[in-house]
Amino acid sequence: VALRLVACAQNGHDVNLSSLNLTVPPPKFVSNIHLNAGMCYVEEKAKFDGIFESLLPVNGLLSGDKVKPVLMNSKLPLDILGRVWDLSDIDKDGHLDKDEFAVAMHLVYRALEKESVPSQLPPSLIPPSKRKKTSVFPGAVPVLPASPPPKDSLRSTPSHGSANSLNSIGS
């Protein structure tokens, strides 16, 4: 039962008894690469939560301006950091909450281990706090907002932390 629930969680489904009837692939376990990196998930999350708090979030959120120096410190290419931001800002509000920040840091650490940053966030990396807000149906199309975006592109504002705004930091 526990392993089926783990498999459900890894595939973006709710973890409850009704999920036991879903057809899901077997659960994936941490590879030796991750074990050799020296941290299990709980230790990794605790470390990232500590970094998050040290950046003095406002109302539980960090702006791109506060996250940018942490990402830049990784020395990863700007296009990779832009993709990390885009993937980790799950609710696309231009800020990272504690769970989104942990996703960003996880992706950065994996990239530093020479793993590729995915083109879309795997269901297993979507935090439980974000799962109900994110479509888990394959092929689903996100609903666009009723009003058009502001005249200035969202990606050009530094607080959004995209590759463009990361690039604006200069040398």
TrEMBL record:
GO terms for molecular function: calcium ion binding. The keyword Calcium applies. GO terms for biological process: endocytosis; endosomal transport. Pfam families: EH. This is EP15R factor. SMART domains: EH. PANTHER family: DYNAMIN ASSOCIATED PROTEIN 160, ISOFORM D, EH DOMAIN. Residues 155-171 have a biased composition (Polar residues). GO terms for cellular component: cytoplasm; plasma membrane. Residues 118-171 are annotated as: Disordered. InterPro entries: EF-hand-dom_pair (IPR011992), EF_Hand_1_Ca_BS (IPR018247), EF_hand_dom (IPR002048), EH_dom (IPR000261). Coiled coil: none annotated. It comes from Horornis vulcanius. Keywords: Calcium, Metal-binding. Residues 76-111 form the EF-hand domain. Residues 44-132 form the EH domain.
